[in-house]
Structures are given as C-alpha cells and as structure tokens.
User: Fold this.
Amino acid sequence: MQPTGQSVGGDMTQKIAELPTRSEATAARIVAAARGLFVASTYADVTTEMIARAAEVTKGGLYHHFASKEQLYFSMMLEDFERKRRLFGQAVCASGTCRDRLARLTRDFLELPDEERELARLVRRDINTFTGEKRDRLVRAYQQALPEQVESIIRDGIEDGELARGDARILSWSFVALVEVVIGEYADRVFGSTEARLDHVLGLFFEGAAAKPLKGTV
Assistant:
C-alpha cells in the first residue's frame, strides 16, 4: 500500500533528482584520480596530463571542471577535510569519558581506507607549495578536521579530572603524533590489527611507557 500523499512517480522523481549529473560524476572521477596520484607522488610530480589520463577524460575536460592543478588539489583537500571534520566530530559530541571518545575518534581514523588516511598527511608534505590565503585555508581546514577535535576532547578530560593539568593544544599534537606512528608498513608488521594499534596509542597516552612496578615493590 502506498503511503498517503506519496506516489510511486514522486518517489522515482526524487531518486532521479538525487543522482549526480553527468558533469558532477565527471568532476568526482577527476578528483578520485587526482587523489590517488597525489598520495603516490609529490604535488610537483603530478601533472594535469597524468590526472586526465587516470580519470579517462581529455585535458580540456579536466580544465572545464578545474582551472588549474592548484585549484583541483585545493578543492580535493578542502572536500576531504570537511568529510573528516564531520566524521571525527561525532566522537567530540559523543557521551563517555575522554578515553572513550579519543578511542572512537582514533578508531574512525585508523579504519579509513589507506588513501584517505594518507590524504590527511599531504597538507604538511605539500604545504610549502602554497602561499597566502590558500595556504592559510588549507592549514585551517586541517586543524579543524583533526587536531582541534582531539584538543576539544582532551580539554574536557582535563576539566573532568581524567587528565592531569596541561596545555590541551600541545597534548592534542602529541596525541596526533602517537597515532601517526602506528601507520605504515613497519607498524603493520608490529601491530597488525586496528585494535592493537588503538591499545598502543591509548596506553602510551594515558599510562606512559614506564614499566609497572611489581607487587610488593616501591
């Protein structure tokens, strides 16, 4: 039975309207191709010809959507950081302890596809390519996507007495650095699973690396 006030034709029209246009689909394909190339090589080494070939479009088609390689890279990074800001923001808004929320945010990051994890690190690798407003916007978008969200959770942990008093911003940078250490080929061999990486990061941040004293010893 069809719900009152709704028709099959209306449902179909809405679904069609939600589909990307041909132009949007082409732009998305170009961005996806560029993403893989920029992760694999430096900004300077990737050319618009390489991107067009990988996206299976002409260079003219690429320039129809993006005026330059710089604009394409800039759009790609801002779009990615916005997705990550929304994803990691769920942990910031979640209930639970500081440790619980950092665990959720970190797990969400570690479970991203390799390419998406690596994108977050490009801003430091390639940032000197950009100057002025573009550079500032990229840095700001990165900070809003990751370090500032970690900082917000840590600040709550300090206020709740779960963490010792300290500078929340510096602690957030320290936490992000710990997470980055468990990414890569060597870390893959050492840890293997997401849970093992997560346990290492949280244990090191909250308990440190010192050996626990044996019972009966000082």
